[in-house]
Amino acid sequence: MLGASGYAGRELCALILRHPRLSLAYATANSQKGETAFLPGGGSVTFDAADAIDLDRAKLAFSALPHGASAEWVARAREAGVKVVDLSADLRIGNGASTGIPYGLTEWNRDAVRGAAVVANPGCYPTSALLAILPLLTQGLVAPGAVINIQASSGVTGAGLTARLDLLFGEITENYRAYGVGNSHRHLKEMRAMVEGKDVELLFTPHLLPVARGILSTITVPLRAALPDVLAPFRAQYASEPFIEVTPDLPELRQVNGRNVVRLTARAVDGLRAPTLQVFSAIDNLMKGAAGQALQNANLMLGLEEPMGLPQ
Amino acid sequence: MLGASGYAGRELCALILRHPRLSLAYATANSQKGETAFLPGGGSVTFDAADAIDLDRAKLAFSALPHGASAEWVARAREAGVKVVDLSADLRIGNGASTGIPYGLTEWNRDAVRGAAVVANPGCYPTSALLAILPLLTQGLVAPGAVINIQASSGVTGAGLTARLDLLFGEITENYRAYGVGNSHRHLKEMRAMVEGKDVELLFTPHLLPVARGILSTITVPLRAALPDVLAPFRAQYASEPFIEVTPDLPELRQVNGRNVVRLTARAVDGLRAPTLQVFSAIDNLMKGAAGQALQNANLMLGLEEPMGLPQ
Amino acid sequence: MLGASGYAGRELCALILRHPRLSLAYATANSQKGETAFLPGGGSVTFDAADAIDLDRAKLAFSALPHGASAEWVARAREAGVKVVDLSADLRIGNGASTGIPYGLTEWNRDAVRGAAVVANPGCYPTSALLAILPLLTQGLVAPGAVINIQASSGVTGAGLTARLDLLFGEITENYRAYGVGNSHRHLKEMRAMVEGKDVELLFTPHLLPVARGILSTITVPLRAALPDVLAPFRAQYASEPFIEVTPDLPELRQVNGRNVVRLTARAVDGLRAPTLQVFSAIDNLMKGAAGQALQNANLMLGLEEPMGLPQ
Amino acid sequence: MLGASGYAGRELCALILRHPRLSLAYATANSQKGETAFLPGGGSVTFDAADAIDLDRAKLAFSALPHGASAEWVARAREAGVKVVDLSADLRIGNGASTGIPYGLTEWNRDAVRGAAVVANPGCYPTSALLAILPLLTQGLVAPGAVINIQASSGVTGAGLTARLDLLFGEITENYRAYGVGNSHRHLKEMRAMVEGKDVELLFTPHLLPVARGILSTITVPLRAALPDVLAPFRAQYASEPFIEVTPDLPELRQVNGRNVVRLTARAVDGLRAPTLQVFSAIDNLMKGAAGQALQNANLMLGLEEPMGLPQ
């Protein structure tokens, strides 16, 4: 585990420690080397400096290094013959030059992930939104030229374990605000890349919630035609997926807390001239939005069963 | 004060106690008669049964009785020659038969309020949304036939001081969810009535935040044409309004907590073919969204200065 | 599971569903019969009326019925030949007539629990406090005649899933208060009964925290003599206990969230004439303080391994 | 205002802006010079570098500079002939050499404050605790040689507006913990100095609450003899105090939020051999515990009415 001291890194260390077939070869964190951190769910990990460890002590490395710093370490790991799941944005689709590296939105890219040496793990917002809209797009249900309006709210761990004044408890409690507006958030690139070729546009507005974990996306989708059964496209797509819960009820953050699932539903919008659907999608940003999905991908890359060691 | 034991009622009692020209003639709450409640900001009030008081001990009555129960008491107060600000939905525009009673969205209906014997105080969500979109609509800036997408999130006091399991702390903390979806929330009627005659449709999705107070509305508006200065329509409209803060920054709930203001900004949405604006509007649902606006209206009805006794 | 719809009941249903050797024969909740509830960690349960089920479909029944109502169902289950872990206060030591029923503070009563047909599961506060003070008392370290001052703070789920105005999110967030003061809380009886015969007195003050789960007890203990190693009494006592974490660091609620453990430490108090110790003890009130400890006891009563199916 | 960018500094700027007789001559914050900050309750302030302002533009300066840095600026202000209220610990009683500077616990030191050129404003915890125990001590009600056990819990703004990982929302929400234990917190010095000469010892344990503001102290006091009326000593002492609320009810943090008051009650402890009292005391750490009390002192130093410009 490279860059293990942040929220996603610690979550992944905890998953690895409980995994029936994996063990934790190393956990690096230059700024906290020698320190021991308590892990979610119990247990602890002591951090090494990245330069002090032999990368090839592991068959597969997870990198939760900061955006920008990760790509270099992915390259080093590859030289050492180590497979990598990169949780940073560095190698993701839509972020600069085409890399040919699979985008690890597992349910949509399973075959490419299975054979890959490197996988770019999706961002948390894109995971929440893409799993909700791709069934509609691939089944041709969206109105041509439509603007898909993605309004999403995230818990503060999405911003990482960084000492920022605006993330202090005193600034977040009893507060709520939008940020990264004007369609300017970095995650929009991945989402756009994944809907390329479809005749739609994306509008994305993230908000910051006074909760530790979780993302709820409320997505408005103009339809080609009204749907007789609004859940059918999702049920058809995800019937055999262990980590996707299609439900008639509106999803809540608490239902996905600590779990590697997306929970989603859809509702027709009444009283508008054009047929319109709203899709509601909830994930734990640190699990299905980061560490959990990374482990899902790693299991596939290592020839293990995909759900192994994952809290459903 | 009729129906004084709820969140809005207590807030209003507290405002009246501190008002330089008003005093509290009575505060009724049948279910809590004889009990004394601590008021926000200090002080307390003891509740009477509604039948035990003489309505005409006051020149003006506020009613924060439940929807359905309020209309009858408004009628009684009128018979007793008492002016009324009704905080329930019973007499609001769009809620059934045309009543001719002014809708107390003060900044847009000041003249009608000033002379009225009864005023229907707006709902909290409509206050937040209408103050944000009416400048664009009245200035002809919205694309004809547009769907205005109102995504709003409210603190739990918006649901009232009612003993519901789903409003317990244990159910709300670290949680977030949509509700009243499919364009079905009661407040939509008021909003639609206020944009009647404009060639637009409204889509409204409320969400429940883990905060006590505050509403943030994120509103997407397709424009007739891109705006050279996105704040100009709001600044023009609200230049002399003491309770509307047009600001370049994104508003936050904490900035309006305990204050009788709307704080709003607008941003152009990038990367879409059609010119599109987002308006962000924050209020304290108990102040500008209920008690504060009610007092603004009462001041006008009593010939007092509109801002008298109102925080900021 | 009798009385399955409350917080402890749901937690226990979730544990049973994931248990490798147990399955859920029934889950009763008269007020919610026919309803389906989402369980912590995923999965769901549908409630039956208590009268509609055959008690002997299970070998062992958990009762999380309200205090007062539970004793009758425990009797019925016994008649049907079903073992019972009773989570109510009805049969606990110190609550009225001597029942001879073991008090299921597992680490201190393991042998009695193992052979029992009925076990009274301890209250959450007593679990937190007794595990912290019993090692000092049984090792004769406490000053004769001492007053042990137990200051404890609990999350709101400790008050149950009941529709009380004072437990609404709007009343709890950004708030904190003592309750049950003057040494009057029901849980004090169990604690006193468990220290009977020792020459000490107990002072207990509970407080209500704005968190969903967790109890932290800060306990001041006058010592017979200063201790060379303040952790030694606890390490000696609990060396082989899987669910007790003795640590040099101050325990935090987050470290025990969702886990069936007590995490505790001790510190000498400086600057006082009399040698004095403070013990800090953290539990998850719904796990080690209720459902988890109940399952620990049930495992023993059924001849299973004590830690089976328990998180950490 | 020197050191105006922290929580107490901003609170004080907001109070000054609304004060009927004071105006804000300057607000310094070297690290944020040129920046504009939103103030609690509305309005804003732009910070200057401390070196860029003429201290004597004000008749009285408040210093909320960090402990250690403040003393130097107090000296500079004095040279410039400016009175000072120092909110840091630098000049407080018990913190090193005797300074002769009045300790601004206003209700107990009013006369000394009135004539002073410099006042050391008390810490938040000492304000909460001393106002609760001094009436008992000065009236000779405490058992000789008693240990007064002060258990206090504070909101996170007490730790200041500093970018510390352990103060992030993600680390504080749903959490609670003790800190500064073993009787080692800095504030203990002030408390001990203020009870010097009384035959008592103090034990003080602070805890960190998941709330923004507020301190609740639960204080156990062994009495010389049982009291016929436990509130009488407080009512006698504080009968004419505008900022002290003696109440039969247990105080809650929400009751003092944003207000310059201490709200306190007392309860006899039942079931102990020795007569024992518990005192419960709630303040807003930023108001009565910092900015509000500072303004109370400043009003006296400037010959204004003590309550001027203070909420409630």
How would you describe what is shown here?
The structure is a homotetramer of 312-residue chains. Chain A is 27% helix and 20% strand. With 312 residues, chain A is an alpha/beta fold. Chain A has two domains: 7-122 and 289-301, Rossmann fold; 124-285, Dihydrodipicolinate Reductase, domain 2, CATH 3.30.360. In chain A, strands 7-8-6-9-12-11-10 form a seven-stranded mixed β-sheet. In chain A, helix 4 packs parallel to helix 6 (187-194). The longest helix of chain A is centred in the middle third of the chain and has 15 residues, at 124-138. Chain A is globular and about 65 Å long. At the C-D interface, strand 6, strand 7, strand 8, strand 9 and strand 12 of C face strand 6, strand 7, strand 8, strand 9 and strand 12 of D.
Write the layout of secondary structure elements.
4 copies of one chain form a homotetramer.
Chain A lengths: L6 H12 L17 E3 L5 E3 L13 E4 L6 H10 L3 E4 L19 H9 L3 E3 L3 H15 L7 E9 L14 H4 L4 E2 L8 H8 L5 E9 L6 E8 L9 H7 L5 E3 L6 H4 L5 E7 L7 E8 L3 H15 L11
List the chains of the largest interface with their residue counts: C-D, 50 and 50 residues
Adjacency order of strands in the biggest sheet of chain A? 7-8-6-9-12-11-10
Using the coordinates above, name the CATH class of the largest domain in chain A.
Answer: Alpha Beta
- Compressed to H and E, one letter per element, the order of chain A equals HEEEHEHEHEHEHEEHEHEEH
Proportion of residues in helical segments of chain A: 25-40%
